[in-house]
Amino acid sequence: MPLVTSEQMLLDAQKGGYAVGAFNVENMEMVKAVIAAAEELRAPVMLQTTPSTVKYGTLETYFGIVAAEAKKATVPVCLHLDHGSSFELAVQAIKAGYTSVMIDGSHESFEDNIAVSKKVVDVAKACGIPVEAELGKVGGKEDDLEAEADTNTDPMEAKEFVERTGVSSLAIAIGTAHGFYAGTPVLDKERVSEIKKVVSVPLVLHGASGLSDDDVRECVQRGMCKVNFATELRVAYTDAGKKLLAEKPETFDPKKLGVVGMEAVKELVMGRMKVCGCDHKAE
Ligand SMILES: [Zn+2]
């Protein structure tokens, strides 16, 4: 089917008490693997690309691949711009056919974050495209950006932010970080519940790669409606290729590397979808 927006998908998740898995893809193989996982589990799914990924490919290239694969799928597929770094990039993504965008002004002041997020919302809403924004700082390496010391989201600020910007969903910081964790992350899960009480839109969890299944499950139970997985997909994809090359150094066909990479990513994605509870929600 044609790509769908994230609006209804996330509202359904909010109502149903589960989360939609959002998976970062880097190439055709990862796109195919994520959609194959969604098909097998009858799950709605979001595929997303960061600014560095669209710099590597282009918005049009990723749109082309994802739209072609989604067309064959029988579950809803959404293509989302992850961590949109500017108003211009968000608009370009919509123009290229993306059906959901994030504007990440979390490194700006509260007022500047509101200003840039509202600017994107005004244009996106006119095009029927929902906008995710971020408030508070998710730690670790976030694409090309380095966040400083992580600062968790303040519930009352979140409420004001959503009301003043009109965003469709909000990424909040509760102690997670992008990339992998060196130690065990200290998550402020109670904060998810507190924010859920005062914010009406679906909440988004970033930095879930490397979190335990139990941690993800509890965050979802407390109100996270979209969970992002990026780093661990890249690791699974590349490790499968490394393993094949170690076992069969004579391998030269990229398709052989693609096949094992796709299997590994599909397996991982299916596991994470079950943890998010979005399996069998597309029926
Ligand atoms: Zn993120």
From TrEMBL:
Cofactor(s) for this UniProt protein: Zn(2+)
InterPro entries noted in UniProt: Class_II_FBP_aldolase, FBA_II
Listed Pfam families: F_bP_aldolase
Domain of life, per lineage: Bacteria
PANTHER family membership: D-TAGATOSE-1,6-BISPHOSPHATE ALDOLASE, D-TAGATOSE-1,6-BISPHOSPHATE ALDOLASE SUBUNIT GATY-RELATED
Protein name: Class II fructose-bisphosphate aldolase
